[in-house]
Structure formats: structure tokens, C-alpha cells
Amino acid sequence: MKKYLLLLLALSCGYSLANSVSSFSDMANNKINLTPEQLAREPELLAQMLLSSLHRNDLKGVALLRPIYQKQAFQDPVLSLWIKAALARKEGDLSRAIDLYRRLISASPELFSARLQLAMALFDNKQYTAAEYQFDKLNTEVKLPLLQQTIAFYKGQLIRQEQWDIDGSLTYLNEPNINNSPKDNQVENWTFSTEKEKAQGFGYMLSADKKRLINDHFFALTVIQADGKYYWNNKKYNEFNAKIGFGGGFQNVKNTVKLTPFVEQAFYAGGERGSPQGTLHRYFNAVGVNFSVEHWLNSNWKTVLATEYSKLNYIDRNELDGNSAFAALSLFYLPNSKQYWMLGANYHRKSTRKKVYQYRRPAVRIAWGQEWGLGISTRLEMHYAWRHYYAPMREISDFAPSFYKVRQKNNEFGGSLSVWHRGIHLWGITPKITWNYHRVKSNNPLYQVNKNQILLTLTKTF
């Protein structure tokens, strides 16, 4: 079919489509007037006009063209879904628009304009964390100065928001060996009677933080976190942690710096020697400080530094009292809006009153996130760590297994693969299936671990 450069001055039904003007070829500038009936007989041209209006975010033009398109014998499902999303946003039904845009991008992740409109709808619906995530993805591909300015404007607005950011997750847990009982209970003519214990339950997490702006760049910060595990058939392994922090920071479009002193309280039901009823008791408390820096090197590369120092006080086990120091440096690469890579290294050192419990643990990490066709997304993560303790469990002269008389050294490997569908959101909740693998090779055979888990996680950002 011949392509046109079309200017619709008026239609016989009495309304104007002047706002739907779009260039469809670089042919001579011919002006063509069509009635709705004539346009309905040109399905390819009608679809091109709708696509042009959608790409340009011309919601009025989309609304005028939609009734004509609905009468077509064939309606492209992706185009129809985009039309519904755009008009829901135009009518102010942001929750429905967001759901439709997510389904659209799930089916066609290459639609840059649709992803931009999703980010705008999320921003308008005050889902600022999710909006920032989409704008960061868009920023990896945008080349046109006007679009760069649009994204920069929204990111500038995002750092000025003072609303609470709330995240939560719920994970089904199935632990075939929750007490990490060794596979072989007899080592060096010593018999260890610990048997494997099973547990099923769920893990939960809820975090909330709020910025209060001091001026354009400096802010005060409140952070509240709670997480725990509940096992309905083995309650003596139940646990709960709560943390609250008050601090501040500095931010602009490329940098975010945070300093947050905090207090923390942990509760535990006791483990193998705990209460079968799962009664939680105070396990330890901590006072510490978090410091983090996030810096965008350019639109595709980002670095993140996270550190934490805390002083630990155990309620019943004073030999564990001491301090914990942690630092992690990560480099993110986002080649496009559908993929990211992460390479990181971290170091953890725990000091205790009794040297046998004191250790250092350097580690390296790598992660890869990908949006695939058919709406499937995956995240693969792997890490390797070396945990070295500072003293043996027993003296050379003690009557004990030989592996207790040397400093324990663990080589720890872990990996996880998460899979989810971008188009599945129920009340804003995203279900994810995750396979976890954890392996520990140790010179103490009682601390060898080889564990596989399948987890179902529900996540939501409020």
C-alpha cells in the first residue's frame, strides 16, 4: 500500500484529528483529507497513525483513532494492549494503566516509548522506587537529547520526593536439614548423634525508609527494617530481627551518599535446645552505623559502596560479644534496558571475646539479570567466599577429634537462579521462583554443607 505523509484537517463526523499528524515517509508533503469511512478502508495507514500517536504520547489522537480501529476485522494484540494502557493513563486510572503497560512490556520489551510511559505512570502513581528502576533502564538506551532531558527531569523530581518507600516480601521455606547435620555421623572413630531436622514455614521481610529534604541536595533519613522466619512444624528455629536508624545524606542525579546510625535487636527461639513452642527470646542487640555511596559513572555504568560497623552484645552467650565490620564494592553494567551485569567483592570480619568464634570472610560475587521474550525474566547470582577462623576449638592436649585442634577453614560457594513473569502482578505482588544452592567445604567435617532449595517468593513495593 502506498505510504503517506498525512495531515487530517477534519473528519465528516465533526471532530478534528489535527493532533494526530505524523510523518510516515519522506515522500513529498502532500496533504490528504480522509473521512473515518475512508480511513477504515486503509488498515495499514490507520495502524501507522496509531503507532505514531502512541510513540509521541499523543493521547488525544489515540482516543480519536481508537473507535475506527476497533471496527477493523484484524486488530494487532500488542497495538490493542498499548491503546488500552494509554487511554487508562489518560483517564487517570493509573493502577490499571500500570498493569496494562507491564503486560505490554512483558510481551514486547523493545518498546522504548511504552517503557517510558510506564515509568511516567509509576511516577504519577507515587510508586517512586519502581519508577526510578524503569528510568534507569531507559537511560541506558536513550540517545535523543530531548528524551535525555525528559528522563533527567523525572530523575531530578524523584530525588525530591519525601514519601515513605516501603518494600515487603514473603518466601515459602522448605528446609530438609535445618540444623546442618553432617551426612556422615561417624568421623575418626567419633560418633556424633545429631540427626537431620526438617522444617517448613515462611520467611518475611518489611522495610520502610523516608527522606526529609533539608535543601535541594541534603536530606534527613529514617530507616525501619524487620525480618524473620517462622516454621510451623519446627518452631524452635523461629527468629525475628528489627532495626531502626536515623541519619542523613546527600544526593543529586548521579550520586547518593547515606550515613545512618542504627540500633538492632534480634530474637531467637533457641535452635536445637530451644522451646518446641517457638517462644522467642532476646538473642543479641547491636549499635552501629551504615555508610553507602552510589555513583553513576555514565548512563550504563554504576558503582555502589556499602559498609557497616556494629558492636554486638549477646544476652546469654557473652563469649560472642564483640564487633562486626563489613564492606562491599559492586560494579554494575547495564548495556540496555533488558540486561544488567554485576561484579562485586566484599569483606566481613567478626571479632569476639573468645577467639575461637572470631573470623574473617572475603568473598567475590557476580550476577546477571535478563529480560527474555514471552515475558520471562531471570536473575543468576554466584558467589565464592573464604571463611577463616582465628583459633582452633580445642587445645592440642585435649581429648577431642583432631579437626577440632586446628583452625577451621571453610570454602563457601553459593548460587541462585530466580525466574518470574513480568506480566504477572496480583495486587502489585510479583511471584518469583528461586533455586538456591549452598556448598561449604571445610577442614572440619561437621561443618560440611551441600544444600539445594526451591523457594517461592512474593514481593511488593508500596
Automatic annotation (TrEMBL):
Keywords: Cell outer membrane, Membrane, Signal, Transmembrane, Transmembrane beta strand
UniProt-recorded name of the protein: DUF560 domain-containing protein
All residue ranges annotated as the Surface lipoprotein assembly modifier C-terminal domain in the record: 164-462
Species the sequence originates in: Caviibacterium pharyngocola
Domain Surface lipoprotein assembly modifier N-terminal TPR repeats region, residue spans: 32-135
Entry's family note: Belongs to the Slam family.
Cellular compartment(s): Cell outer membrane
Membrane-topology descriptor: Multi-pass membrane protein
InterPro entries: Slam_C, TPR-like_helical_dom_sf, TPR_Slam
Signal peptide: 1-18
Pfam family, one: TPR_Slam
Any one annotated GO CC term: cell outer membrane
Superkingdom of the organism of origin: Bacteria
